[in-house]
């Protein structure tokens, strides 16, 4: 093979290796190699590396690169289902455990709420320590869904679930149902911030999994136990911190850009804050089920007459009647 071709191939492989070295997949396989080779096999491995032919060395380097890239891709594909498991969306056969954990967390929440009330009464008259404790506890309680039925069995699940419920509590907009439409009207800067936060959350989940998988090297090295415990624990704390920031960005997106969502869909943005929850629920029903909104909510598409919505679907007549009566009662 010509020397120039060898040089080009080596350069390409080197570039790919430089990128792969910075991934958790490389750290996993490098740690496994160290666990297997240290202490007695390392000398033989070093001798083999120095005596192998160039073609064998190139093939070994390419094979190792493929192993790192493929395993990293597989773990990346598992990130979303893994994150769902870490949130507490478990299979049905784990339902009893899920309910037991939710009840246990609910008892802790009730104690925290009682302490919050005591601190709230003493915060004004108390010292700096009392006010700091009140602020910290208030921030913690905000990361838990207000309704017990929305709570999750894990802390990470509560943080993300609380972020999903804030727009519904404030504006009547169901975040999971409205989010794809809101995303389309967000400015590029907001999208980038949200995408970066979500990527960081996914990266934390992948690191958690790589740390857990490191337990396979325990038979060859006792210190793999430490890695298999500390890395997932640190990754979980990282995910908690990232989830808080991600939740704040989701809430801020609805706070700042929900009017753009109303306008893009053809709704009149609610001018009265007292009516916003009902209008937001009507918009959610319209986007999710196609339920026609009450008269006057749709903006005219031409002329001066308001848009007359089509008759509601038969399966949604009950929901439509309730929304209409609630809106007119206001």
Word description of this protein:
This protein has 330 residues and is mostly helical. The protein has three domains: 3-77, no CATH class; 81-264, no CATH class; 266-329, no CATH class. Helix content is 73%, strand content 0%. Helix 8 runs parallel beside helix 11 (224-265). It is globular, with a radius of gyration of 27 Å.
Give the topology:
Blueprint: H1 3-20, H2 24-37, H3 42-51, H4 54-77, H5 79-87, H6 95-123, H7 128-142, H8 155-171, H9 175-185, H10 188-213, H11 224-265, H12 276-289, H13 317-329
Radius of gyration from the CA trace?
27 Å
As for the number of domains, it is 3
Which percent range describes the beta-strand content?
Answer: under 5%
Unreliably modeled segments = 1-10, 303-330
Shape: globular
The class by helix and strand makeup works out as mainly alpha
Biggest β-sheet description: none
- The helix/strand series, from N terminus to C terminus, equals HHHHHHHHHHHHH
> With helices defined by DSSP (H or I, 4 residues minimum), what is the helix count?
13
Helix content estimate: over 70%
Terminal Cα separation, in Å?
A: 82 Å
Mean pLDDT metric: 80
Number of distinct beta strands:
0
Considering the chains and any ligands shown, give keywords for the structure.
single chain, 330 residues, mainly alpha, 13 helices, 73% helix, disordered C terminus
């Amino acid at each position: 093979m010509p020397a120039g071709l060898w040089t080009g191939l080596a350069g390409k492989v080197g570039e790919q290796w430089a990128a792969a070295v910075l991934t958790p997949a490389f750290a996993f396989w490098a740690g496994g190699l160290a666990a297997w080779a240290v202490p007695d096999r390392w000398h033989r491995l070093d001798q083999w590396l120095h005596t192998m032919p160039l073609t064998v060395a190139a093939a070994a380097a390419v094979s190792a690169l493929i192993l790192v890239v493929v395993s990293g891709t597989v773990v990346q594909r598992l990130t979303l289902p893994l994150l769902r498991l870490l949130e507490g969306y478990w299979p049905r056969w784990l339902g009893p455990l899920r309910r037991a954990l939710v009840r246990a967390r609910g008892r802790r929440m009730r104690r925290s709420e009682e302490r919050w009330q005591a601190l709230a009464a003493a915060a004004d008259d108390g010292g700096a320590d009392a006010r700091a404790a009140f602020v910290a506890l208030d921030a913690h309680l905000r990361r838990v869904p207000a309704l017990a039925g929305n709570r999750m069995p894990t802390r990470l699940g509560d943080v993300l679930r609380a972020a999903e419920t804030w727009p519904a509590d404030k504006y009547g907009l169901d975040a999971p149902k409205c989010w794809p439409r809101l995303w389309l009207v967000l400015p590029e800067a907001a999208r980038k911030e949200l995408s970066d936060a979500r990527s960081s959350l996914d990266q934390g989940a992948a690191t958690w999994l790589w740390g857990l998988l490191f337990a396979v090297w325990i038979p060859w090295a006792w210190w793999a136990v430490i890695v298999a415990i500390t890395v997932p624990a640190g990754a979980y704390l990282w995910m908690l911190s990232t989830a808080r920031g991600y939740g704040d960005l989701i809430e801020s997106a609805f706070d700042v850009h929900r009017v753009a969502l109303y306008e893009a869909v053809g709704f009149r943005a609610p001018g009265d804050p007292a009516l916003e929850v009902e209008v937001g629920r009507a918009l959610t029903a319209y986007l999710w089920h196609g339920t026609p909104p009450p008269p006057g909510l749709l903006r005219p598409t031409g002329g001066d007459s308001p848009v007359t919505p089509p008759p509601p679907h038969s399966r949604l007549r009950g929901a439509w009647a309730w929304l209409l009566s609630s809106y007119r009662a206001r």
